[in-house]
Write a structure and sequence with these properties.
- The structure is a homodimer of 479-residue chains.
- Chain A folds into three domains: 249 residues, BirA Bifunctional Protein, domain 2 (2-Layer Sandwich), CATH 3.30.930.10; 94 residues, Rossmann fold, CATH 3.40.50; 73 residues, C-terminal domain of ProRS (Translation Initiation Factor IF3).
- Helices cover 36% and strands 25% of the residues of chain A.
- Chain A contains 15 helices and 23 strands.
- In chain A, strand 18 and strand 19 form a beta hairpin.
- In chain A, helix 1 runs parallel beside helix 11.
- Chain A starts with a helix and ends with a strand.
Chain lengths: 479, 479
């Protein structure tokens, strides 16, 4: 058993040796995805897609509870439609995939495979918004989008990815701004409550905001290695698109006005965040809320009379959870490694001696601690351990975030941290793009993550240029 | 109130006057979809998409109960991959949309936007199938596909549509054949139990089968006007694709074998089937199982004290159903028409006098019959009326199918029915493509729907050529 166990584990590179290789190993060995012959596109295998389905169910319920409705827009955008908003097309045109032939004929106008759908939503909004009674429109869509990529990293950087994109229209700027912040809060709650990932949230700088937006808000979880992953964004557009698409409504006072717009999205990158925030050298660790298997039952000496019957009885008692009973003829050691690799939060072991004692063993995937419990308390103990796994994941991630967040008061401190200490850097900023550019160039890639909410200024001058500081910014490298 | 009611209804063309226009009117007025500037593509509005979400939930549960797992494949297929199976590419290449430019560069190989995903699944199957222990693979995917169309009809004929495509691999031909038939049965059950649509099922002729398949099975519901709509298909591929893609497995006896394959799909055309099977001159009629709103509560004199409180109490008691309480300031008449148009199965009216009597009124969307019930029996009465609506829809559709199915014993009878009686024609067939072609040409579009299951031969000679007959075939025009 020990040998088998060791063998499975040896298949993954240690995260301390090579984090990127560890990531790729986990993604492959946990059977989350497979590569395809289509450049930049990947295949979601059943276990990987099941995680996405759970994420979808969770987020979708949060959206609908706030009154959002799902719709579906075409996957193609005619070139002329994409060009209607100037900043938007400049941002996206370079990474578009273009359909130029349809049904054996050259198209008179080429079609972009949607990289995002603001333009399509606006075209539709023009048809369905006429009066203040038609507002707000709170729409969301689940779909795949395409942004041409030179390199491929599973879940993190792929030409096609899956996401949700919310698009809303409001009578006033205030309402739209409130929606932008409300949806960022939904993402923050989702990351913390469902993915067990605490994160910094805040506003993007002008340089880093979304193409066409007035304001972009972001959630920026830190991966185990100190690198940021943009976990979700929420944009306030003002009435820019409404003007470009000539969308107006007649208000209660009979004046004609432009509505105000938002959009917000979370993608399958969130699966990358789960892997890199929680995983360890034994593989994946999945937060219970989105784990396809929350409890795996592994019977010992399952050929002995009564063992499988009891294991099945235990499974039935846990029917409110996603439970798998593995009664295959693989060794117990192989199974232990397999479900550790797959990140199942709780393992339940049960054998003849346990059954004699009306007991079983629970093992936490996070701490690997074994707990001997009476079957009388089965449901309560499983519930408690699932909660404990969630809480420990949050706690570990919060400690990692705190431990790898540094303060820099001048450029020397900044570059020293950037060179030697992977993580986030809190530093004051004068507000100029020049300082953002300089920091990025000198450090080889450190960028402003966001102007964070709820953090106090730590100095009065810009850590880059020494001029008076306007904002505290959290800086870091990113996936 | 009567005036308002009339006005709403007048917005739809009567189905007897112009069935095609009636269909378009219903689709628009019930707010199921909107057109977009993208040729052949349509927008699913919230109400239309909610129907699709309910269909997805229903079918997905049926698939998963049988052990199928969801995956997600890339949306692009390189030209060389599509060409691997000869019949398949011949069938689909003429209707492909091709991406030729990615990220501002001409691609060295053009990419087809998937019209169906057999080739992508096969490429992946080759990576994950090695041993008999890896079989069966029971996969399904929910996605959008593109087949270039010259004409657009909402839900029926669009360049992009949404669907599920199941793809399975099995150790033996018998197992794969059984899966093909099992999934057709799932579709048959789904159409009857959830969409309230009885239908003819059977096997497609050689001429009508899927490109690359050995056998295609189909479910063929009849629309109200007698025209067929292919409701779902299930294909048996044998080992043709396995050979083309070099997919093999080592069996328990250590010999290397090709696995056997199936695929099966249902699309958003099923929404077209719902509309055209059940709808009437007042609009949509939705089967309760997939209706986004199952019960609409319309309070009368809602400004009077206690009315809205009571209506809300009633709504809360019906929380196991999808219930909408419309307390907007529109007139009751407007609301009646609106929710009739939207096909809500049961309307619940409640006003001051009802409340005094501890009563309310239920109205069936099918019969428009009013039922005065005591609030003491609320839950049971609502449940009963929803069941009754379902049963009546099934009954009406079954009667329409029976009434519009004719028998033809010779060519004269056949062409006479084809010209004068919209519906299905049962007629014997010699098995030749020539007779299928002749029938199609002479009648201007009547095609073989299927060789039906469970029907007895009605003659011994082909109704077209008079030669000895091999099979009974159901013929008809189709959407």
């Amino acid at each position: 058993m020990a040998d088998n166990n060791k063998k499975m584990v040896e298949q993954i590179t240690s995260m301390d040796v090579d984090f990127a290789q560890w990531y790729t190993d986990v993604v492959k060995k946990a059977e989350l995805m497979d590569y395809s012959s289509v450049k930049g596109c990947m295949i979601f295998r059943p276990y990987g897609y099941a995680i996405w389905e759970n994420i979808q169910k969770d987020l979708d319920a949060r959206f609908k509870a706030l009154g959002h409705e799902n719709v579906y827009m075409p996957m193609f955008i005619p070139e002329s439609l994409l060009q209607r908003e100037k900043d938007h097309v400049e941002g996206f045109a370079p990474e578009c995939a273009w359909v130029t032939i349809g049904g054996e004929n050259q198209l008179s106008e080429k079609l972009c495979v949607r990289p995002t759908s603001e333009t399509l939503f606006c075209e539709h909004f023009k048809n369905v918004i006429h009066s203040y009674r038609d507002l707000p429109k709170l729409y969301n869509q689940w779909c795949s989008v395409v942004r041409w990529e030179k390199t491929t990293r599973p879940f993190l950087r792929t030409s096609e990815f899956l996401w949700q994109e919310g698009h809303t229209m409001h009578a006033t700027a205030e309402e739209a701004r409130a929606e932008t912040r409300r949806m960022l809060k939904v993402y923050e709650d989702f990351y913390l409550e469902s993915l067990a990932i605490p994160a910094i949230t805040g506003q993007k700088t002008e340089k880093e905001k979304f193409a066409g937006a007035e304001e972009t808000y972001t959630i920026e979880p830190m991966m185990h290695n100190g690198v940021a992953l943009q976990g979700g964004t929420s944009h306030y557009f003002g009435d820019g698109f409404a003007k470009a698409f000539d969308i107006t409504y007649t208000d209660a006072d009979n004046t004609v006005k432009y509505p105000h717009q938002t959009s917000w999205g979370v993608s399958t990158r969130s699966i990358g965040a789960i892997i890199m925030t929680h995983g360890d050298d034994n593989g994946l660790i999945l937060p219970p809320a989105i784990a396809p298997i929350q409890v795996v039952i592994i019977p010992a000496a399952q050929h002995k009379p009564g063992v499988l019957e009891k294991a099945t009885e235990v499974k039935d008692r846990l029917s409110k959870y996603r439970v798998k009973l593995d009664d295959s003829d693989q060794s117990a050691g192989w199974k232990f490694s397999q479900y550790e690799m797959k990140g199942v939060p709780v393992r339940l072991e049960i054998g003849p001696r346990d059954i004699e004692n009306n007991a079983c063993v629970l093992v936490s995937r996070v701490t690997r601690e074994k707990k001997f419990i009476s079957l009388d308390n089965l449901e309560a103990e499983v519930e408690a351990m699932l909660r404990q796994v969630h809480d420990e994941l949050v706690d570990r991630a919060a400690k990692n975030l705190a431990a790898k967040t540094y303060e820099a008061h001048n450029f020397e401190e900044f570059t020293d941290i950037a060179e030697h200490k992977p993580g986030y850097i809190k530093a004051m900023w004068c507000g100029s793009v020049e300082c953002e550019d300089k920091i990025k160039d000198v450090t080889g890639g450190v960028k402003s993550r966001c102007i964070p909410f709820g953090m106090e200024p730590i100095d009065t001058v810009c850590a880059c240029c020494g001029k008076p500081a306007k904002k505290l910014v959290v800086w870091g490298r990113q996936y």
